[in-house]
Amino acid sequence: MAEDEIWTEKYRPRRLEDVIGHQQITRRLISYVKSGNLPHLLFSGPPGVGKTACAVALARELYGETWHSNFIELNASDERGIDVVRNNIKNFARTAPLGEAKFKIIFLDEADALTSDAQSALRRTMERYAATCRFIISCNYSSKIIEPIQSRCAVYRFGPLNATDITTGITRIAKNEGLKIEKDGMDALIYVARGDMRRAINALQSAATIAKDITADVIYQTTSTAKPKEIEDMLKLALNGQFMDSRNKLDELLITYGLSGTDIIDQIYRSMFELGLDEDVLVALVDRIGEADFRLTEGASERIQIEALLAHFKMQGAARSK
Ligand SMILES: Nc1ncnc2c1ncn2[C@@H]1O[C@H](COP(=O)(O)OP(=O)(O)OP(=O)(O)O)[C@@H](O)[C@H]1O
Asked: What does the entry list as the binding residues for ATP?
């Protein structure tokens, strides 16, 4: 294998039993393989948790050697438009499946990026080729998929992977690549991954370019993530009434790590539960974080939103000490 190969590809599960986590889903997919038939499928869930990996492993097991000819992966949100996607489907569906197979599989990634009109066009395409093709539609949010498509599919919801799953995946790769992962290094990988195995593997590969001994410092440095402790320190300063100091800490984090506003908000959200705050204080702060998060997606100033959030930490801290 090439030295510079991307590890997420190199370690893509070949078989359904190699997929980590999602046992209930893989069990049912294996039963499709055994029966030699499957309905249209809708895979929904966050990025990097194994939706594509499951679809490819399913095709490999179903078709064996001929899987490449009987499986196509298309990006539904192809920027050239839904007509290009439909043309690709048409060309692929035109020829009969190879080998023993009764149907071909069309894997459509990012279907939730399609407008409702484009999804309606897709639905008609699904119907037209239903005799010779099965569709596996992948999306982050099933609520963004129109009802007529959802009702034609068996829906599988992929959740984020838990810490044990990430540890299993990372340990497997580290062993093969001759890396030593320190306990704090693994904790950092789990923190950075946020349930996304792709993110964990990419973080490991970047870290491996600078060290064979993977520590938390290496992970935070190579992924431009602030250490949870630094975020906690910033929040504690605000809670203790030292608003200007917490603001300086924010500056330091922005400069050191080049964090985006949404990165910091996400980290603040995760750190605040470690501060031993009363439930009613947490409730008030979570409410504010939700607000700031929404405003950022609407294009508000990152700097002002985060400072406003720190101001709320200060106000809650002051109310708490009364
Ligand atoms: N459950 C898993 N078990 C083992 N490896 C995994 C798992 N999930 C992800 N990976 C690794 O991460 C890579 C990316 O995963 P995959 O392409 O399946 O994500 P996805 O859920 O389809 O994401 P997206 O929504 O972004 O397309 C895989 O090639 C594999 O290396």
From this structure: 45-52
